Amino acid sequence: MQQTGLESAVNRQSWEWLVDLAPRLDIIVEIVDEHQAPVFPVGSTPDAAEFRAMLTSRESTIHSAMSDVLESRKPVFVSVENLQAVCCALASGGLVFVGRGIAGGDSVEDCRLDLEAIAHWLTGAIDATLSQTTATSVEPYGIVSFGRILREATTRGSTRKVIGAFVEALSVW
Predict the structure, then answer these.
(1) Can you give the pTM of this predicted structure?
(2) 115-124 b/e with 16+ CB inside 10 Å = b?
């Protein structure tokens, strides 16, 4: 099976930041390709598993939202059972869902506003990550390491330690 452009771009990047972000914000994040298939493994929460089941079973409200977003390129709010989500278009042609399970005392309107704000920011961050090239320059990291090693050595005071740190820094570079 051949990879889509989105799948290829997804595979070139590290997504740890996104995986870590979802539970911290108590949200569900699903990225789907242009064929409306999820590109990441299902999230670890019960709400994420429930949303994935609806997504892959082609639940009509979610499927309709995906079609609307692909056509208009404008975010669409979706409410299915106890799950709320915002679907947004990605520049790469895929879609991102940002959702949350809603408890009995929560306001649907407050949840929608929160999800729209998060989805707006997150869509930009995902698009930026997808557009990065695979060639990551290590030079900035080397410069930072070099500066840190020399700063630590100069606080120790002796010329010998500074020269030793300089040699160590060059070997790191």
Answers:
(1) 0.68
(2) beebbeebbe
Per residue in 107-163, pLDDT tens?
888 888 889 988 988 888 888 888 875 545 455 556 666 566 666 666 666 656 666
Residues whose CB falls within 8 Å of the CB of residue 83, separated by 6 or more in sequence, listed in order: 28, 47, 50, 51, 54, 99, 100, 101, 102
Q: Return all residues near 30 (Cβ < 8 A) that are at least 6 apart.
A: 38, 40, 43, 48, 51, 52, 55, 96, 97, 99
Half-sphere exposure of 18 (CA within 13 A, CB side): 26
